[in-house]
Amino acid sequence: MFGKNINKKLKDNDYRLTGQRTAILEVMMDNQGRHLSAEEVLVQAREKQPNIGIATVYRTLEKLAAIDILYKSMFNDDKYRYELNDDHNEHHHHHIVCLACGKIAELEDDLLCSLEGQLETQGFEVVDHELKFFVYCPECREKSKRVSP
Amino acid sequence: MFGKNINKKLKDNDYRLTGQRTAILEVMMDNQGRHLSAEEVLVQAREKQPNIGIATVYRTLEKLAAIDILYKSMFNDDKYRYELNDDHNEHHHHHIVCLACGKIAELEDDLLCSLEGQLETQGFEVVDHELKFFVYCPECREKSKRVSP
DNA sequence: TATATATTGATAATCATTATCATCCCCATT
DNA sequence: AATGGGGATGATAATGATTATCAATATATA
């Protein structure tokens, strides 16, 4: 119903698909590539399940992140955000955060394998990594050029 | 009094060095390489300035991070932590976080310049980056081997 | 269908952080 | 040395995100 990988994870973890959880998963799929806060998920989920409560949203997001269907992280506004884990970027999250407009871009390729290999040589077991670049994006640089010449 | 670079930053930013601020800076220097929460700073600062309050600690840490004397980040426990910015790693923070014991190691070298260069070619202005590896450290792997063989 | 178990929603509780505000301290000027 | 003013401080209230609680519901299985 949600794609082979997601369904497998749900089944492997014995996770009952209630109406509320379905709504939340649908919201996350509708927003592939975006990073939603619990509050934002609530608003959209209510369009599908009008009585859903914020507690259920938090519980569900937390659980879906625990079984790797979602990825949870925080940028610069003190609230956790969740994104759908596609099968490629799972465990490899690279975010490019604009310090001016907050837009988040993704870095597609993965040049970090060699670094991970190095750590494993040193005895670490690498489970995940997260790399954030804080930037001014081309649009914001352009805008600020216009404002203060 | 605190090293050439720190003094310059303080002076450039017209930042008055009160007893409380001195105490906090001393605490951060006493804990070079460690990542302290506001609460932890408070406890140690009170040994030097018994009446210092938590609000002052937050204000001071925030300000010292704003002028790049400290670096602020969050790991897996929902509270901000601060570390002294040494002159080499400033704007390049690489942390290796053990998922079992929470110990934080640092990755010294910087293999990310080429990635940054790539982004700059694409029109981004890279201000900072942060890379976290989530691992099981050698000690914890050893321990867990002993527990469940 | 009955019963055990999981899930939900409302709401209270928690916890880190921020805002407020009266007081204090430090420096410059008289 | 006294005075005045603006920043700094500490106590504490307020905020806001997240978590815990608990009674009510829904679901699965016997």
Structure description:
The structure is a homodimer of 149-residue chains. Chain A is an alpha+beta fold. The first copy, chain A, folds into two domains: 1-90, Orthogonal Bundle (Arc Repressor Mutant, subunit A); 92-149, Ferric-uptake regulator, C-terminal dimerisarion domain (Dna Ligase, domain 1, 2-Layer Sandwich). Chain A has six helices and six strands; from the N terminus they run ααβααββββαβα. The first copy, chain A, has helices at residues 4-12, 19-30, 38-46, 54-66, 113-121, 138-147; strands at 36-37, 70-74, 80-84, 92-98, 104-106, 125-136. In chain A, the strands form two sheets. A three-stranded antiparallel β-sheet of chain A has the order 1-3-2. In chain A, strands 5-4-6 form a three-stranded mixed β-sheet. In chain A, strand 2 (70-74) and strand 3 form a beta hairpin. The first copy, chain A, is flat and about 50 Å long. Chain A binds chain B through residues 74, 96, 99, 107, 111-112, 114-116, 119, 122-138, 141, and chain B through 74, 96, 99, 107, 111-112, 114-116, 119, 122-138, 141. Strand 6 (125-136) of chain A pairs antiparallel with strand 6 (125-136) of chain B, so a sheet runs across the interface. Chain A binds a DNA duplex (30 and 30 nucleotides) through residues 16, 18, 20-21, 37-39, 51-56, 58-59, 62, 78-80.
Poorly predicted parts of chain A: none
Strand order of the largest sheet of chain A: 1-3-2
Report on the biggest sheet of chain A. 3 strands, antiparallel
**Largest interface, C-beta closer than 8 angstroms, per-chain residues:** A-B, 28 and 28 residues
Helix content of chain A: 40-55%
Rg over CA atoms of chain A: 18 Å
Q: First CA to last CA of chain A: what distance?
A: 54 Å
Order of helices and strands of chain A, N to C? HHEHHEEEEHEH
According to DSSP, the number of beta strands of chain A is 6
Count of helix runs of chain A: 6
The total tally of domains of chain A equals 2
Task: Return the CATH class of the largest domain in chain A.
Answer: Mainly Alpha
CATH names the topology of the largest domain in chain A as Arc Repressor Mutant, subunit A
What assembly state would you assign to the polypeptide chains in this entry?
homodimer
Mean pLDDT of chain A: 89
